[in-house]
Amino acid sequence: MVILALLVSIVAGAISGPARKASHARIAGDEETELLKDSARSVAAFKEVYKVLMHPRCMNCHPAGDVPLQNDDSHLHAMLPRRGNGGHGVYAMKCANCHQPTNTPGLRTPPGNPKWALPPADMKMVFQNKNPRELALQIMDYKSNGHKNKAQLIEHARDTLVKWGWDPGEGRSLPPLNYQEFVAAWDTWINTGGYAPAR
Q1: Single pTM value for the model
Q2: Which of 20, 25, 150, 158 is such that its CA lies 20 to 30 A from the CA of 143?
Q3: Number of domains in the chain
């Protein structure tokens, strides 16, 4: 009788074991599908974000060199001001000499914001000439994004200097998405994993 019960137990275990494995495989498969959906959604969101970051309103202050770019054609800034260590200019050529806390009234006069500056020399955050993958990886890298974690990256999109891009003063074009669309795409990109496009 004991042997019969033991055999029944072994057979039942042999049958239920594969069923359990199949169940776990199905759950893992569902999680993988969700992850792939999130990564696809994340990449799609970043492609929208990228359009904004490559627009002159953003890219002009994220140049490859140490001289800011200017206007919609992104030419080198007149008078060739330099970045300086902190990003605020050097010697008598400080950004704040011309760039006041608000836009100066008039056509293509100096734009303004209290935080007007380039990123600092030790964390240049270059946008210029970066493909979508390079830029996404740079933004999500704590060592090269200004030491921002996920929450700080989310908050950065609400910064007044970022918002300035949609109020740049007379004679300057606006980014291709409106501000609310940009924030929604930015948040989606980060909250679904901050995935970088393949290229």
Answers
A1: 0.81
A2: 158
A3: 1
Residues 114, 34: Cα–Cα separation, whole Å? 42
Average pLDDT, the chain: 87
User: Nearest-CA neighbor of 118 among 191, 189, 65?
Assistant: 65
Calpha distance 184→166 (Å, rounded): 15
Please provide the DSSP assignment of 153-178 as one string: HHHHTT-HHHHHTTS--TT-PPPSS-
DSSP one-letter string for 42-103: HHHHHHHHHHHHTSHHHHTTS-SSSS-EETTTTEEPTT-----TTSSEETTEEHHHH--SSP
pLDDT digits (tens, 9 = 90+) for 23-58: 333 334 455 555 556 899 999 999 999 999 999 999
CA dihedral 59, 63, 64, 65 (to 10 degrees): 170
Full residue range of the structural domain in which residue 143 is found:
43-76+124-191
Q: Residue 16 half-sphere exposure, CB side, CA atoms within 13 Å?
A: 6
Contact assessment for residue 194 and residue 45, using Cβ atoms and an 8 Å cutoff: no
Q: Classify residue 57: in a domain, yes or no.
A: yes
